[in-house]
Amino acid sequence: MLLRNTIQFFRLKPVVAVGFLFATSSLLVAVWASALPFIKLRLGLNDSQLGLLLLFAPLGSIVGVLTSTTVFSKIKIGNWLGMGNLAQCTLFCLEVYSPNVIWFSGALFLRGYFGFLNGVANNMVASRLENEYNRKFLSTCHAMYSIGGAIGAAYTAILFGFEIKSLYQILGMYVLVTITVFSLRPFYLKHDYFIHSKSGFKLPNKSILGLSFICMVIFMTEGSIVDWSSIYMKRELLAPLFYISLGYGGFSVAMTLGRLNGDIIIPKLGDKKIIIYGSLIAAFGILMVAINSIIPLVIFGFILTGIGCCCIVPVLFATASKIPNVPAVQGYGMITTGGLVGFLAGPSIIGFISEQYTLSLGFIFTFIMLLFAAFAGYRNRYLG
C-alpha cells in the first residue's frame, strides 16, 4: 500500500513540483547543520553566544507570522513559489560564509522570515491540490522535507569523506536546488491566485493550548537536533567527520519513513496514542543520545527520536482543524505559533545549559519536555 501511494504521488508532476519545495530547505539545513561547528569556531562563539544568535531565525519567523496576510494579499502565490524558497536557500549560504556576527545574525533573521512564509505557501497550495485531485498527499509532501534532510546528510557525509569543506558543499547543493526550482517553475506559475492565510501571531486559546504546547515541544526537539547534533557528535563524542552529520541524517530518515507510513499508522493507532507513544519513544531516544558515548548508539538514539516525532505534527494540524468554532486556518496559525515558540526557546536554552554545564544535560532537558508532551497528549480531550 505504501509503495502504491508513493508511486501515485510521483506520477502527479504538479504535486511533485510542490513537494520538492518542502525539500529545498531541508537539503540546505543538512549541510548547514554540519557546518555549524566550523561557523562557531570561525566567529569565535561559545555555546551560549551561539544559542543566543540562533534566536534570530525564529524571531524572523514571528515577523513572518505578523506579515503573512499582507504579503500574500499582494503577491500571487505562483510568483512566490520557488522564488521564496531560493531566497531562503541563499540565506543559508550567507550564514555559512558570514564574515562576522552581524552578517550571521541578519541572515538567520531573514532566513526565519522567508522560512515561515514558504511554509504557509507550500501548505496552502498542497491543500488546494488535495482538493483538486481528491486525494490525500500532504503527509507525503512533509515526507519530502525529511527526504531532503536525509539526502543532504548523506551528501555531506560523502563529501566530508573526500575532505571537501562545508564552504564548497553548501554551494554545490545551492546550485542543484536552483537548477531544479527553475526547471519546475512552469508548474508554480500555474497557481495564478492570491491566498489570504489570516495567520496572525496570537496566544492559543484554551481549547488548543495543550495541542500548541505539544507542537512547541516537538518543534523544540527537532530544532535542537538540527542545531546541536553535529556539535555534540564532533565536540562531545570526538566523532570523525564522516559521522558528524549522521545524527541529523538518521533522525531525518526515521522521520521520512514514518511520514510515508503515516496514513496507515495514524488510523490504526488513533491520534491520542500517536501523541503519547510517539512522545515517549522520542524521549527514550533523546535520553540515549544524552547518556551514551558510543557513537552507533547515539545515532540510534537520534533515529528513535525521529520515529517518535514523525507523525505527531500531522496529527496536531489535523486535530486543530476539527476544534469547534475555530477555523482551520486559524487553528493552523495558533499551532504554528506554538511551534515557533519551541524553535525560539529550545536550541537557545540548550546552548545556555551547555555553556553552564554540558550539552548532554541540554538533551536531558529535551527528554523531560517530551515526557510533559506525552502527559499533555494523555490529558487532551480533543485527541480521539
From TrEMBL:
Superkingdom in the source lineage: Bacteria
Organism the protein comes from: Lacihabitans lacunae
Transmembrane keyword on record: yes
Name this polypeptide is given: MFS transporter
Keywords annotated in UniProt: Membrane, Transmembrane, Transmembrane helix
PANTHER family, per database record: BYPASS OF STOP CODON PROTEIN 6, INNER MEMBRANE PROTEIN YBJJ
Compartment(s): Membrane
Record field: transmembrane: 15-38, 50-72, 101-121, 142-162, 168-188, 208-229, 241-262, 274-291, 297-320, 332-353, 359-378
SUPFAM superfamilies in UniProt: MFS general substrate transporter
Domain Major facilitator superfamily (MFS) profile: 208-384
CDD domains: MFS_MosC_like
